[in-house]
Fold:
Amino acid sequence: MKKSFSRSAGWIDRSLKSVWHPCTQMQHHETLPLVALKSGKGAWLFDQDGNRYLDAISSWWTNIFGHANPFISKALKDQLDTLEHAMLAGCTHEPVVELSERLSVLTGNTLGHCFYGSDGASAVEIALKMSFHYWKNSGHPEKQEFICLKNSYHGETIGALSVTDVTLFRDSYAPLIRNSNIVESPDSRHAKDGQTATDVANAAADKLEALLQEKSAKIAAIIVEPLAQCAAGFVMYDPLYLKRVRELCDRYKIHFIADEIAVGFGRTGTFFACEQAGIWPDMLCLSKAITGGFLPLSLVMTTDDVFNAFYDMDITRGFLHSHSYTGNPLACRAALATLDLFKNHNVIARNQTVSKQLSEALKPLEIHPRNKHFRNKGMIWAFDVDLETEKQATFPRRFFEKALQHELLMRPIGNTVYLMPPYILNGEEIGLLAHKTISVFEEMMKS
Structure:
């Protein structure tokens, strides 16, 4: 019998010898399959052997309009023949100006100044440095500490790790990290009998206020992922918490940094998650879906007050953070095309329809006795699987492998299974995603 030839196998071998893959224990790939991708189209990815996988997590929450989106692709091709890159120090260009203006309008011009980076962690670094330096310029150099939520995740660079409360990422680098003040999460799963998500949010906000009463003179800012703490296992909470945080920040004179890197651009049901609380932060971090998954780009939006604290002839009072590809024209053009798709295709309203359809199709998971806390916020779904302790460590890898066998790309976080699919799913794909997710889960429970 003739042995079948696999193009994927050759690419996998070469990758494992030369590429150090992110967020991975490389030895696991001795048994865990690596997917050798060749192309993508819409919600689907295709490997070197022609197998397809529905990208149920939008490739780490970035490809909101699917892979190889023709509209974004054309915008990039047009920009490529005009200006591919120029430094933003001492120069400017059309895409970065237009993008900054259009994003500001989406905040009602409350956040009118955009500072650019490359990825989510760098946006968090920018915001932390900006807050610290603001207080120094404003005559309060003692305000050097930060607050983050329990189990929060804001990136893996050294500054971002200082406001991340996930031991898996922090502990190895503890000697390098400056500790922050960690406060209770408004996690709605903490609700006890008779309590609501609002009650949990108020209780968490009360604990934050107690800390501020004690230490606000030393606190520069609090950083929060609005409505959903994604890498924490998709903790979801009531918008009231954001409203309370805004009030407390104003009262105790600290900055409110909103990390919308994962939850912005329609993911929670509104364009910006903060809109659901009717508030704006002092600094808003954006990345991931901003370019529709085409190119790396991040930015921090901030207020006139913050900007004016740096506006001076003295260069030492300026914000001197930079990197070579700040505000790259190609990435900005992709972001502008992404905004055009939102504007021209009524994306938020369509997402509401998709969300209802997929939630209905996932009902068997919501009521399954081995699941806890099935939850949905906009275009995010998650549930916690009841597992024996000895099976928890390997569950994400085993689920990932089983999902591949069912043409799904999924990547659980601990015992939390989640879906963050592209916004462009059609009716057939919604049904497929639900059916295959349920099948994977049932097979996992049997094993």
